[in-house]
Amino acid sequence: MIELSNVHKSFGSNEVLKGITASVEKSEVVCIIGPSGSGKSTILRCINGLESYDSGEILVEGAKVDNKAPSIVAIRTQVSMVFQRFNLFPHRTALENVVEGPIYVKKEPPAEALERGRALLAQVGLAEKADAHPGQLSGGQQQRVAIARALAMQPKAILFDEPTSALDPELVGEVLGVMRKLADDGMTMVVVTHEMGFARDVADRVLFIDGGVIVEQGAAKSVLNAPQHARTQDFLHRVLHPL
Amino acid sequence: MQNFLRDAVEFMPILLQGVWLTVVVTIGSLLLSTVLGLLWALMRVSGIRVLTGLSAGLINVIRGIPIIVLLFYLYFVMPDFGVALTALQASIIGLGIAYSAYQAENFRAGIEAIDKGQIEAAQTIGMGWWLTMRRVVLPQAVRIVLPPYGNVMIMMLKDSSQASTITVAELALQGKLIASSTFKNTSVFTLVALMYLTMSIPLILLVRHFENKAKRK
Question: Buried-most residue among A65, A72, A235, B211 (CB within 10 A)?
C-alpha cells in the first residue's frame, strides 16, 4: 500500500536519499534500521509529505505523495505519524489531543469522537489519564497518547519515527507493548527504530539503510540473525555489543 | 495645597471630558493595532514569499515614521487626496497603524516560539495552515504574548496624548488649554499627570498579573 521508487532527496548539497525503492504491503510491519544520519527518518517524513523529495515517486494506495498538492491532506489522514519527541499539544488534555483530528479535520460529531477517544486511551492503557495535560504525564504515557492520537484518525498505516529513543529505558517496554498489540491487530506499520529486539520479534521485514541507500533487506530474522552485507554485520555488531 | 484642591475641583469636569477622549483614542487604536498587527504577523509567518516580503516592508516603513508625522499626514495631507477624516478618526487610525508594527513583531515572536514539532504533528493529522494556527499555535502564543501586550497598552495610553497635536481635545490638550487661559500651570499639569497615572496603574497591575500567569506555566 506504500510504494517508493527511486526516491532521491537532498538537503542543500547533502544527498540524504540516493534512490530508495521499497514497498510496504497491507498489514505488514517493516522496521527501518541503520546508523544515525543515514536517512531513515527522512524516508518517513517523505512518505507523509512533511518533506518534499527531489525525484522518484512515492505512492500511498496508488495516490502520489506531493506535499505541494491539496491531495496531501487526504494522504495524511490515511497515514499517521508518531514522533520521537511525542509532539503532543501541551495546552490540551490527553483526550483533547486524541479527538482533535477527528473533530476538526474529519468533522466527526464531538460526542462520537469523544467516546471513541476514550476507548482508544483505554486501548493504550491510559483510560484514567484522559483529563491530564501532557506535562503531567511521563514520557511513556505521552507517547502512548500520541499513538492513540494517530489511531484516532483511523489510518491505514502508521509511521513511527524512533518512538522510544527519547524515553527513559524503563518506559520503553510500555510503548513497545502497545505497538506490538497494534501489529498483532493487523495495522500496517513502518518503524524507524534502534530496538533490535522489537524488530526481530514483531517486524515482518527489516530494511538496513546506510548512506542514503538500502544496503540489505529481507525477513526480519534473516537480516538480523544472518546479515549478508559487511556494513549490516558491522552495524548490528556495534548496536548489540556496544562495549 | 488648599489652592491645589480648589483648582482641582474647578478644573476636574473639563479634564474628565479629556479623559473620555483619551480612553476612546486608546481603546480605538488598541483594537485597530491588534487586528493589523495580527494580520502582519500572520502574513509574515505564512511561508508565502510575497506576503512575507510585503509584511516585512510595511512593518519597516511604519516603524521608520514618527507617530506625530503619521498623524499630520492622515489629518492634513489625506484631504488633498479626497479623504477627509475627523481629528478623532485620524488619531485612532494613525496610532493604530503606528502601533501595529510593534504588535506584529510581538505576535510573531509568540508564534515562532511554538515548537515546530507540534506544527508537524498537526500537519500529520491532516490540519491545514489556518486550522493549525487556530487550534495549535495561537492559543499557546497568546500566553507568551500577553505580558508585552500589556506594556503596549500602557504605552498607547500615554501616546494617545499625541492626538492633541491634531486638535483632539483629549486629556493633555484640555490641560494645555486650561493652563494657558488660567496660568495655573502647576495645578493643571500636576492634575493631568495624576490622571494619566491613575489610568496607568490598573494596566500596570494587569501586566504583572499576566507575567505571573506566564511564569506559572
Answer: A65
